[in-house]
Records
---
Amino acid sequence: MGEPSRQPVLSVAQYLATEAEAPTRREYAYGQVYAMGGASMGHARIVRNLSRRLDAHLDQSGCEVVTNDLKVRVNENAYYYPDLLVTCESLPDNALFCERPVLLVEVLSPTTTRIDRVEKMNAYQHLDGLREYAIVAQDRMRVEVYRHDQTGALWTCEAYTEPHQEVVLKSIAAKISMTDLYRGVTFTTQEEEPTNL
């Protein structure tokens, strides 16, 4: 999510009113605003690969895929931007946020791992209608799908780590192969430094 901005604490109404004009996307949690950092090319490729396949799968289903630009309202005091969400509610074109996603996906980055695994996971699991939360690593093949089948049920985790596996997303009756999900992504070892141009 990033570091808190140096702006004064905002009310929810102030945050929503100023978010459209903000130069960068900002998440909001309990009065604090957090600027969103840029993503790596590997991150972008994973989101693109998943979005394309889910979009084709959901065609004519009444559900839709949204990437990066629509907030999720997790409660009256917190709004996050997931990397990808699937919603089956009919949202108007001027909707600023979604309240009932069925699937949320976060692609881990070095600066967001703790937030995605702890803060967001805890918040997301209280959303009405949410059936699955997927955490996707970008430094290696690893996808964790946290799911439950009914309201109040315990969340379980299924991990996928092998190229031949298919990630199962029960909430939308979809499968995507690990090789398709990670198409175009090159993993670097700890010793290698990323190339910056």
---
Amino acid sequence: GHATSAEAHDLYLQGLYQYSLQSPASYKKARQLMQRAIEKDPNYVNAYLALARVEVVLVHITAESPDEGLPRAREALEKALAIDPQNAEAHGQLASVQYIYGWDWPHAEQEFRTAIAHGAQAPTRSAYGWSLGTRGRFAEAHQQLAIAQELDPLGIGPRGNEVMVYMLEHNYEGGKRILRGIMDRKPDSLDAHLLLGLYAAIERNCAAATDYANWDIKNFQAPASLFEMALSSACHADLTQSRKYLEQMAAPGEKGGYVSPYQIALGYAYIGDKAQALDYLSQSMAAKEGQILYIKYDPIFDGIRSDPRFRAMEQRAGLD
């Protein structure tokens, strides 16, 4: 997977640096640098893998549309595999693209297994564990996530995925245990606060939901904090205020981060507004949000799961 040209390798390293800056502009620079590295050395497997990663991130942060970015990501991975058919990371990345954006589980699982057979590392194990969780295969999911954590003991990704799998499993104690562990090491972890707030709202522990929501809105001016405020208001039966927060989230020009239609759908499902929840879920599907794959087991949708429109979405995403 390494470069034969020093120039290509230098461009690749510059690309990795831009990728690490994590802004839409730096991701686009990273893409350009990876493309230049490939021009200098068309057999540079690692540059193809990095290029695919950049394309997926640009889609993920909504800096480009799935229709543009994903075919390019697939093409880069297929080129990597043409050069090195046993490349575990290429198979692992392809598996995630096939599942999250292609909703093609049989093909994705085949790619995950091939990746593991060729010695896939923590990111692929973690992605496979997350994917198994969305399909209700919880024991296998925890098994893959445990291996991911052994391979990468300091990585936050596998632990975050484990928290989501526990939530889908409706095993709230398991998820809270991990989140408290994260908070012990990093008391100001935003993700841990957001997820603990979500767990509290699901369990109708309204006092805790409010504490977390207040911390979030004070420390993080973003749609996700408005979402937590909406849940905590609804938990206290103030549906009018809850709707105000959800409308504020959806308002055009709401700054400070990507507004997730899936999150808004969760908010409306939580207050029992099925029609709005289903409308936002359709938007989430159209945007190819990765979270849409949670719908079959997401506890907040337990109340609307029997609706024919909801079932049609499960089917369309290949979750039936």
---
Amino acid sequence: MPRSAFPAPDDGADVAEAARRPRDTRRRVVLVGFQRQANLGLGYLASFLRHHGYTVDVLDCERPASEIVQAVRDADPVLVGLSLIFQFYVERFRAVIRALREGGVGCHVTLGGHFPSLSPEQVLALVPECDSVVRFEGELTLLELVDTLGTGGDWRAVRGLAYRMPHGTVRTATRPLLRDLDRLPYPDRDFSRDNSVLGRQAMPLLASRGCARDCAFCSIHVFYRSAPGRIVRTRRPAAVVREMRWLHAEHGVTIFLFQDDDFPLYGPVWRRWAMEFVDELHRAGLVGRVIWKISCRADAVDAELFSHLRAAGMYLVYMGLESGTDAGLATLHKRMSVEQNLRAVETLKQVGVLFQFGFM
């Protein structure tokens, strides 16, 4: 469906509906996924469910399967949700789900992530022990699924799902992307883990979701273009800084690692966003107390802008340069040149910002 044919999303109505929906929160929810460097996706799902009254256990998928099975059996949840962020690990996740079923876990099991969202038929075929796939952004869909299961409703009517039937895979109506990210509670984080870097507390966070670029090798832009709504949504700068100030004051975090696919810098609108973000950091008294890292493309690197960002604490930039030839960049649909990449690297050196880069 062309994007112009999608109805305008209204997550305000969806969030209000979620608050009014009948639910039985006596049974727990278990979420399973990678926990290295804190999994913000699982963190947002867990906090959204907890915000609506559920008790949520988050398990590290790298724990032995026997430990996961025992933890799930002890919890006796209404649902187990697994976050499959890497297609490579589908067999590992299937082994976990098979172990759950063999261990007597009979509750609803669902999978989410980029690969399940974009290829639900393949995932449901590869993981026959799984009941459903939560497609695209999962907060509202997962909450409605848990509510419906807990109250005995027809979970197959929930928007944003895929599930198998004898005649094939069924995809329910696609749920729009969240429009206002500031409606979400802060993601749950495991502060008991060692998140230190050189003795300083580090923590990931998000200023935005989505990516407006269309590189040929990347699933991210396909993921966000396949659902109704704006592809890129930014949080308000004041809200981002408020979360940083809370993490700094309550948990001693002094290094912030922005996990945005493309930190909002490029173009006049996002440049204004970035400068307002800098102003908010000054107003919050965080400049000189915290440092932060971002990811961006080389065409966003500007000496004047990045000097302001560095002065406000930005110490590291990751860029996906991807290829050392213009032909390679064209093949990857980067819409960039080697000259632009080299100019960005030189600018970062002049400004005094550390940088890392990746190649395909």
